[in-house]
Amino acid sequence: MRRVVIILAALVGSISASAQTTMEQFLAAVEAGNPTLQAAGEMASAEAYSARIANNLSDPHVGYEYGWNVPSESGTEQGLSVSQEFDFPTAYINRGRVAEGRVAAAESDLRALRAEILLEAQLGYMEYVTLDRTLQLKRERADHSERAAEIFTRMANSGEVSLPDLSKARHAAIAAREAVVMTQMELADKGAALRAMTGGEQVLPTDYTAQLVEPMEQMLDTYLTSDPSLLSAKSREEAATAELKVEKNMALPKLSVGFTAKQGSGGNRVNAISSGISIPIFSSRATVKRAAAEQRAASAEVRAVEVECRTRLEALYEQMAIIGESQQVLREMVDDGYPQMLTRLLESGQIGAVEYFSELGSYYDAQESLLRLNFEADKVAAEINKIYL
After folding, report:
1. For residues 324-338, b (16+ Cβ closer than 10 Å) or e, as one string?
2. Backbone angles phi, psi at 198, to 5 degrees
3. Which of 107, 117, 156, 166 has its CA 20 to 30 A from that of 322?
4. Which SS3 state, helix, strand or coil, does residue 317 take?
5. How confident is the model over 198-240, as pLDDT tens digits?
6. Whether pTM exceeds 0.90
7. Between the CA atoms of 157, 162, 165 and 167, what dihedral angle is there, to the nearest 10 degrees?
8. Helix (H), strand (E) at residue 139
């Protein structure tokens, strides 16, 4: 019977281990199934098609004419005409550059959104793991509190402690167990949020490895050359520059060519080739000035994104330094064997209920603070390394 129990426990353990989701598996599931990312991908494709459509030729014009002479005895005439209008030739070259810039901007925007969603997924995963570790601490605290309540019950029965001390111990045990339940509920909510990011796939986070961070200047160089948001702004600047050239081209005359064939009732036939020019007196009014203003705005946006990138990285590295100092202080204050020592002091009667629960609470508060600081440090590192997602 004991052998069967051991085998069943091993099977359950292996199934549980196989069901766990690593960080890499989770991010892959998010990238494959996240509804927001899928919708953004389709919108990027639509934007690419829209950008290329703008460089199409105008549609040809086909006309039919039927005329009758006066007096009617002189017969009738029928005619078919086909004409095509063209912009100034360089307009098509510059429109192609506009399309390339817009397509590149759309692709960079999609990469930026992908990085943001994957970063959010990373932080959610790490927060779940941190909360799970917090739950373990709260369970330990509840176990110690319940064990202390049992000790106080025995001591109260023998008259060693008063009823108020016993009541305090029981209330502390109840509060500690309630904190466990509340944390379990919060953990369930976090798990649901992670499943939503994958499109509904089951997620059971396990541990993760803290990320290493490169020096500030090295990371800044990487961002200034590879950041999708900055690349998108530069692509929009290139598109705006090409758009300005297009508007200047559109202020030049348009050309048109056509062919006309006429047939009279007397059998006479006339073929004609036509050509024309359209002078954009009214349609191009202020369009060049508008395009120039948009080009200046796009250039200013590039500079703004570069400044934001630099200042954001500086702030993250400052935060990391501050968190690192606090982590070191807390690590020196935390002694893993402190709860057991408190229990021995309590059983020997050297401390009472007030001292015991005050010290126990301080110990676990420090442990939870250290967990939160570790999470904040990992969070900052993930935000800095977002460029590699």
Report:
1. eeebeebeeeeeeeb
2. -90, 0
3. 117
4. helix
5. 988 899 999 898 899 999 999 999 999 999 999 999 999 999 9
6. no
7. 60
8. helix 89-157
